[in-house]
Amino acid sequence: MRHRTILIAMSIAVLLTSITGCARTISDPILTSAVRHLTNYRFDARTPLADRAVDAPAFIVTYLNKMDGVSNYTPYTLSVSERARFARCCSMLPPLNDRVLTERLLAVYFISNFAGGGMADFVFDARTNIHSFIVFNPLILNADMADWIAYREGGAFIPDGTNRLVVECSAKQGALFFLLLHESTHVVDYVRTITPYVEPDLVPITGKRASRFTNGVWADYRKPLPACDIPGRTNFRAYGMGGARLAASHMRPMYEALSGTPFVSLYASKLWVEDIADTVSFHHMKKLGIRTKFRIESNKSVVFTFSPDDVPLSEDRAGVVSQFY
Prior knowledge:
The chain is an alpha+beta fold. The chain has nine helices and eleven strands. The relative contact order is 0.13.
């Protein structure tokens, strides 16, 4: 998931009526951005998920360009075969993802030149119920899943002739499925607050500071507890976005440290929202019979292996993941 400065001022007046048990509402003017208003979207919960992949309207494109400080993001229209592939991926999601997306997913936008793989973002209705839309980079439509995961993780390291990361999946699958699985889990998190909050600015809405999934693992949104932290973790930049900051010689010690934590990937150790999204993603792929292995090679020899499938879940985290089924 892409993270960005949210266009919500913390000074927005939030009228919480939790004392009376009523739904929470927010005052006018609700938000400064049209992106946050449900009334600016065409939404029908009866629309099949595959048909929610639509061309991004102008206000979304403008928002995304401004968010990333660029001007070259443009809508991408799926071909007939690409839409069929997207529909197949939608049919493979966990039951909870399917239910929540059916109820709350406004649209899926493919954006040419988009940085990274994808992101989920939030929208409010008049009573602060959260809906969501997803943005994808069209490059994932023709990319292999294993290669994309290796790109996401390995791009954080500066090649120096020492180590390289190779990812193996036991079954051939496209990157689209992994990204949809990951981003749709963020949507579930937005709606069901599996973690305390997906974005820090949502604290006034969720009212949560801890959750069953994060307890015993995370000190706060960005910082694991000392026993779960990984040396060099704060310099990890997925895809190398913002510039890779880790020498490839750090790869093996970081994955060795990762193997002693509850995290299924270095990406999962970035934020608690990435933790739940990757945990559910790799767990679900395993249930589908797709096993994943990370292999670190040096001079054409394998020097370390790590598998997300072998990371044990605590009782609390296993209980949370079971809710997706």
